[in-house]
Automatic annotation (TrEMBL):
This is CoA ester lyase. SUPFAM superfamilies: Phosphoenolpyruvate/pyruvate domain (SSF51621). One of its GO terms (molecular function) is lyase activity. Residues 7-218 form the HpcH/HpaI aldolase/citrate lyase domain.
């Protein structure tokens, strides 16, 4: 599993083992089996046992696992689970301590994807991004909103104001680039059956520099993948740009009345690479 290529990551509660195979068949790039928030404390041990048995039946690098926090009573058993060959990477919740991430890297050699979801985590973002085995950063929007006392999410029926998170999202994109990580993964979209809203949300994240986002229901998988793929207009534009590049032998040219120089040509090439990857 290429961790940096993942775009659609679907959460599955660890206490619902009957959903594991269905999630794998959903078409998502990867599934995250959630041992943390999705599982009540009274059910965590049983969920761990069921997951352990299921992992034994799976091929290498099949799933990602969100573990419980380093200070929780279940941390040690979660790390034992993550040593399974079926586990491709570890999702680290509430990752605001770079030292804890480095310690986790000594306990497991799996790639780490820390959730950035508090003011303290953003304050320590550079140290977190440079911690051992960190591969990509994940945005935990709802926990950040709670930590900051933001009026989010609004009451049902009111529009979501994503502008409130623009600064946080931009920090994640910039920091990931500086530290050579894969592009960050955006937070969940909570309106499960709002396909238009999900599409707009995904494309806004892509414009900011995210390359994927987290899903909470299989119904979101297909709309998300369509939203994250280059549009027909983008593909046509990229073809025109690349044709002009060949025609003018790399010189600065105009396409549809707009200047096209090297960065724009590179963008066009990236779009066509995405098309080829998807096909």
């Amino acid at each position: 599993m290429d961790i940096n290529a993942l775009q659609t990551l679907l959460f599955v509660p660890a206490n619902r083992p009957e959903r594991f195979d269905k999630a794998l068949a959903s078409g998502a790039d990867a599934i995250i089996i959630d041992l943390e928030d999705a599982v009540p404390a009274a059910e965590k041990d049983a969920a761990s046992t069921a997951l352990s048995n299921w992992l034994e039946t799976q091929p290498a690098d099949s799933v990602l696992i969100r573990i419980n926090g380093t200070g929780s009573p279940w941390f040690s058993q979660d790390i034992t689970l993550c040593r399974s060959r079926a586990v491709a990477a570890i999702i680290v919740p509430k990752a605001d301590d770079p030292a804890a991430l480095n310690e986790l890297a000594h306990l497991s050699d799996k790639p780490l994807l820390p959730f950035i979801e508090s003011a303290l985590a953003f304050d320590r973002l550079d140290a977190i991004a440079s911690a051992q085995n960190v591969a990509r950063l994940l945005f935990g929007k709802l926990d950040l909103a709670l930590d900051l006392g933001m009026d989010y999410p609004p009451p049902a029926g009111e529009p979501l104001d994503e502008a409130a998170f623009l600064y946080a999202r931009s920090q994640l994109v910039m920091c990931s680039r500086v530290h050579g990580l894969g592009a960050p993964i955006d937070a969940i979209y909570t309106a499960i059956h709002d396909e238009k809203g999900l599409t707009d949300y995904a494309r806004q994240g892509m414009r900011l520099g995210f390359s994927g986002f987290l899903l909470i229901h299989p119904a979101q998988v297909t709309p998300a993948q369509k939203a994250l793929a280059p549009t027909s207009a983008q593909i046509l534009w990229a073809k025109h740009v690349l044709a002009a590049e060949v025609r003018e032998k790399g010189a600065v040219v105009a396409v549809s009345g707009n200047m096209v120089d090297l960065p724009v040509m590179a963008r066009a090439k990236r779009i066509m690479e995405l098309v080829q990857h998807k096909s």
